[in-house]
Amino acid sequence: MSTTISYAELVGLLEEIFLRHGTDKVAASILAENCAMCERDGAHSHGIFRIRGYVDSLSTGWVDGRAIPEVEDIAPSFCRVDASNGFAQVALAQARDLAVSKCRQTGVSVLAIRNSHHLSALWPDVEPLAREGLIAISTVNSFACTVPFDGKSPVFGTNPFAFAAPLEGGDPIVFDLATSAMANGDVQIAARKGHALPPDSGVDKNGKPTNDPQAVLDGGALLTFGGYKGSSISMMVELLGAALTGGHFSFEFDWSGHEGAQTPHTGQLIILIDPSRAAGESFDLRAHTLIAAMQAAGVSRLPGQRRAEIRAQTLQNGIPITAEDLASLRTLAIA
Ligand code: NDP
């Protein structure tokens, strides 16, 4: 049976769960908003389905829900944060104002977060920055579950890459995509629902191509999207998300002693650019010109558009949720 829940109610319920399972108030509020935003926007691979993974990561002591991030002001355009084994979004919140002010002063800034955990989508991190007029790029590496092109075993994570930029007269342009053939959360959802994966998504534990999501999860691995091209982008994500931040590569951490933990212990890189420094007509007008040309060419769906449409619907009508999922969230909030 399906029902609905308002965005505010869902945030409140998720906050209770995070507090109950070991975060402080700041982390509970940031993570609850982040997870509820994903559910609100129909980004289901990182919505409430992830709550069990957050709870297990916290209860096994894999991630510190009360960590205090340490912000380091390194150079006019560079800041770093040691997330102290806490969540990357909490570290970002702590360093955000500094990174934005550096970007406004110098035209560009880099925010390098390490010793951090990120289990969510990246668009919630970059979209608000574009709403403030900045171009924002973010990468995060994850856990070794993706085979590099021409390789035989997983080295890369699903390694998403997100971009957000202001658009004159509209919501920011945002894309946010895993560099693996699909996000791991979608493989888990397909396994639960008994759906086959699209061709060329993954291999089984013997390295044979498979469209069985369970075979990918049981010792198999994903492939990168677009063959060698996606593999190069995924390699870049490892370099930016880990080598440049001081975090772990996706193959470098061992969480085997923390059964059920799902939060990759890696790093996150955010690059901010102030488009007001650019030559020519203003960037957001130029962005508008490009989007108009794409639409004139027949493009009917822009990246981010599906989410924006679902967001408008769910803010008005409530977020659909099954009675079973709602009951398990309520149980987690008290147990
Ligand atoms: P999708 O393939 O569903 O979508 C990728 C992007 O393409 C989105 O911006 C989407 O917009 C857009 N898009 C999708 N279909 C079309 C279309 N037909 N025309 C135009 N644009 C389109 O996402 P992924 O499965 O690759 O990734 C899902 C999420 O998983 C991401 O948010 C990512 O950050 C997250 N992730 C997080 C990880 C972590 O470790 N924290 C690891 C891996 C992934 P729209 O959103 O509007 O559909």
CATH architecture of the domain at 1-59 and 304-335: Orthogonal Bundle
CATH structural class of the domain at 1-59 and 304-335? Mainly Alpha
CATH topology of the domain at 1-59 and 304-335: Hypothetical Oxidoreductase Yiak, Chain: A, domain 1
| Number of E-type strands | 13
The end-to-end distance, rounded to whole angstroms, is: 23 Å
Give unreliable regions as ranges: none
Question: What's the mean pLDDT score?
Answer: 97
Ligand roster:
NADPH dihydro-nicotinamide-adenine-dinucleotide phosphate
The count of helical stretches stands at: 11
**The CATH fourth-level homologous superfamily of the domain at 1-59 and 304-335:** Malate/L-lactate/L-sulpholactate dehydrogenase, four-helix barrel
Main β-sheet, in a few words?
Answer: 7 strands, mixed
Q: Indicate the radius of gyration in whole angstroms.
A: 20 Å
The proportion of strand residues reads 15-25%
What is the topology, as strand order, of the major beta sheet? 2-3-4-12-5-7-8
Family: Belongs to the LDH2/MDH2 oxidoreductase family.
Protein name: Ldh family oxidoreductase
Organism: Pelagibacterium flavum
Pfam families: Ldh_2
